[in-house]
Amino acid sequence: MDDDDHQNYIINLRLMKLTGFYQLINPNTSKYYGYSPYKVVATIEIMFGVFSVSVLILSSYYYLYNTNELMNHFMLAVAIFFSTFKLFCVSRNSELIWDCMDMTSVQFLSYTGHRRDALRTARAKSITLSILFLLLWGSVTVAWCLSPFIVDGVYLDVEINGKVRQYRYNSLNYVYPVGERFYNDHFLAFYAVEMLQVVSWGHATIAYDTFVISMCIAIQFQLKTIADSYSTLCYGTVSEAYGNKRNIDGNEFETALSLKLLIHDQQNMLKIIIMGCL
Predict the structure, then answer these.
(1) Fewer beta carbons under 10 A from the terminal one: N or C of the chain?
(2) Alpha helices of the chain — where are they, by DSSP H?
(3) What is the mean pLDDT of residues 268-273?
């Protein structure tokens, strides 16, 4: 894979490099003391995710009487769990994912008769949607981080040992084993902890989901290109049963060879799809 030739790939390589996803799955990424720094960062984010889900579940006990906050904790725990699980799968199967990257090249298909217009359209669509997703989810992440200051002065009632205590609203609203006065006086320190969790979650979601969006578009348009070539392969051949019509190609061997290449392209695509599913 020629990672410097951005124009010949359907996926948004620049965005993948910006998020670090490309370096995470690239087996040629520089290593220090035998470890890839990007895999180290991914491991830290996974640990953040496990910590966040665990604390959210434990904190839910103190919100049993508060249905709204309880459901909020449940939804956050599920969302962060799946985001963490996806990042874990990518880090663990990085080499397999890297092998599938060649499929996103506009030069991947062997048959030279393919029309490349659809693949150029796929590249434009992939870049547009991935950037749109980046902007939207990035905005959500930033807004989530700033929410404690936007709703400044809001406090949550937390029942601990039969006593209701008021804690200042935070990004994730963890319940810490500290008193309400200590928490509120040192709010910025607790805010920094939860803000890092949100940023980590947002980064993992953007890195993975923009890649999946681009891969789905690449698969769709590669298969569409093959289907279009199938439909036009024998366009110049009309059955003798039509009387005054004949084969205007006049080269059955070339047609058979083209068909063989199309079948080969289709098999390669199916192989990559199956690899991705496994």
Answers:
(1) C
(2) 13-19, 21-25, 37-60, 67-92, 94-100, 117-150, 180-185, 187-233, 252-277
(3) 70
